[in-house]
Amino acid sequence: MPYPDFPIPQDELERQRDLERQGILNHPGDEHFDRLVRLTATVLETPIALISLVDGERQWFLAHHGLDATQTPRQMAFCAHAIAGDEPLVVPDARQDSRFCTNPLVTGDPFVRFYAGIPLQSNQGHNLGTLCVIDRQPRHFSNNQVALLDDLAKLVLREFELRRLATVQPISGFPTRASFLEQAEPELARARQGDSPLALLVIELDHFSQLRQRWGQQASDQVLLDVAALLSSQQSPQDLAGQIDEQQFALLMANTDLDAALERADAIRCGINELSGVYTASGHRLGISGGLTQLALADQGAQDLLHRAEKALILAQGNGQNQIAKLLNNAPLPAGDYPEPRNRAFLGA
What is the pLDDT of residues 77-134, one digit of tens each? Predict the structure, then answer.
């Protein structure tokens, strides 16, 4: 007898993107998460405790105690039901619950009877998975035990945030180069699967080093904050922004064709021209050069797309700065006195 399908959250696409951009999916085990599931199992006296992340077609265990499996099909996952709401999900006896009584995890190994899970909700409001406990015997769960599980889930979320902070630039809060490239890969796959356009803009602040030398570190840091804020205001929910070098930003624009991307890129350039700062009284105006490209059939990954956008950026800088250049293939740049790409060592990525 088939078991019922899992519910799909209303925010599924946004939830999936949020999960992919957390920097935790498919990463190796971590002793801090392992310690948390052991603590959870001990405190709540259950043989099994899991940090489960609900991916597109599977649930993947970031940490697991008392269970050898590292993932199960999403269709079998109790956690797939838990993330469909914002309240704890408690199942005293899965054999008596129509949602789970025919589930292979109930009728066969590991013979789940009791389940309790707390949705792990990100700062963006999406349920990424659960902290859950499982028993092979039916049992009652008190309100105090639910509250304890909720407290432990908050510790898991704190670890998520600490890991996210390790992959972003401290001033802008945008992903570093390495993290940006990792997070961009699912967007490339999604664009190819849906045959939808994908564009990438890379911008660099013109004369940034001179600005820092003249007005100091605080002023230059404020410029980075202001540029990051402007980019955030121009983002669509599916876009991905990153700070890929000291004075370089990238914006991956999903479901955006070249004409729309050019329009958005120029709006960003004009918006940055209008930003004010501590240097405004001098008459100085910020400027950017930008390189724009779109996903090509020959691209093997996000690195290819980024490399081509950076070549277009060099073209814009060589043509006089404060402009956007586009490059749609990997042809060599025309001969000319173009600036060399700068050393990427600042970000270490």
Answer: 999 999 999 999 999 999 999 999 999 999 999 999 999 999 999 999 999 999 999 9
pTM check: above 0.85: yes
Element (H, E) at 17: helix 12-20
Quick: pLDDT tens for 220-263. 899 999 999 999 999 999 999 999 999 999 999 999 999 999 99
Supply 16's token pair: 């999936």
* Cα 120 from Cα 89, distance rounded (Å): 12
Q: How large is the greatest C-alpha to C-alpha distance in the chain, in angstroms?
A: 76
CA distance 91 to 116: 6
The set of residues, in sequence order, having a beta carbon less than 8 Å from that of 6 and lying 6+ positions away, is 74, 75, 77, 80, 81, 84
Q: CA-CA distance, 21 to 324, in Å (whole number)?
A: 28
Q: Give the residue from 157, 140, 150 showing the smallest Cα distance to 87.
A: 150
